[in-house]
Amino acid sequence: MKNAIVIGASSGIGLELARLLVKEGYTTYITGRREEKLKDLQAEMPEMYRIKVFDITDLEASNTAFDAMCADLGEVDLVVVNSGWGDINKKLDWNIEHTVIQTNVVGAANMCVRAMHVFYKQNRGHLVGISSIASLIGGRLNPAYNASKAFLSNYLHGLYLTVQSRKQPITVTDIRPGFVKTDLVKGDKIFWMQPVEKAARQILDAIKKKKRMAYITKRWTLFGWLMRFVSGWA
Ligand SMILES: NC(=O)c1ccc[n+]([C@@H]2O[C@H](COP(=O)([O-])OP(=O)(O)OC[C@H]3O[C@@H](n4cnc5c(N)ncnc54)[C@H](OP(=O)(O)O)[C@@H]3O)[C@@H](O)[C@H]2O)c1
Predict the structure, then answer these.
(1) Alpha carbons 139 and 136: distance in angstroms, whole number
(2) Weakest mean pLDDT among 47-56, 172-181, 185-194, 212-221
(3) Ligand 1 mutation pick, 5, 6, 7, 13, max ligand atoms within 8 A of CB
(4) What phi and psi values does residue 126 have, to the nearest 5 degrees?
(5) Mean of the pLDDT values across residues 49-65?
(6) 85 alpha carbon to ligand 1 midpoint, in Å?
(7) Per-domain residue ranges for the chain?
(8) Which residue of the set 26, 29, 49, 145 is catalytic?
(9) From 3.40.50.620, 3.30.565.10, 3.40.50.720, 3.30.70.20, which CATH number describes the 2-233 domain?
(10) For 181-209, what is each residue's pLDDT tens digit?
(11) Which listed residue, 46, 57, 105, 148, has the most CB atoms within 10 A of its CB?
(12) Is 26 annotated as catalytic?
């Protein structure tokens, strides 16, 4: 029996990915702050979903919840750190920047570390972080958002290196979505916007292939290459 924890599964990419994991036979813990949304998802297949409600910016509550989920599942095969937030911040409001950093950097890193310690102990496991193509470049609309994703991608790489040096069979995957149609993305006519179902399918594929890093959807690989070329050249 396989099991998974998806941090941030009450909407968007995390919700769709949780659906696919359940279809693959994973008993799946889904988390978020909006309990009703989690209950709606659980109602689709109550025997396969379990719920934990917590705010990842509350580190104590997150750790207590994470430990309880692990104890309930026994061994943990997969942890997806998907929760994230951002908003247009043209006025550079510190409250927005601060929330982004607390959510996407502090909260996400805390969950990654918690998961890694479980995997070190189990001597197996798979950590997946949902970063972004925004990790590749500074952003004028919400500087903290792009910087937070740069942190996460870099951090996941560091965690991967810890596994290499420990020689343990643990996988770390950095997922970098481009624009995906979810509540997070404001505005219509957005370049290369991809359906969330397609993005989730490709994330599942990257998980199955135990990829180190994947651009989602695949077309965004072009952007990744371009950014690597430009940064090497500048
Ligand atoms: N959509 C895109 O174009 C895109 C592109 C690149 C990367 N991403 C990344 O993909 C991930 C998922 O985003 P999405 O587009 O699917 O947006 P979404 O629908 O808004 O989903 C965000 C998820 O994160 C959870 N979350 C946010 N803040 C939280 C907090 N403080 N505590 C606990 N959970 C929290 C939300 O749950 P609650 O609100 O219930 O707490 C929700 O389940 C994010 O990390 C985002 O940065 C998205």
Answers:
(1) 10
(2) 185-194
(3) 13
(4) -140, 120
(5) 98
(6) 5
(7) 2-233
(8) 145
(9) 3.40.50.720
(10) 999 998 778 888 999 999 999 999 999 99
(11) 148
(12) no
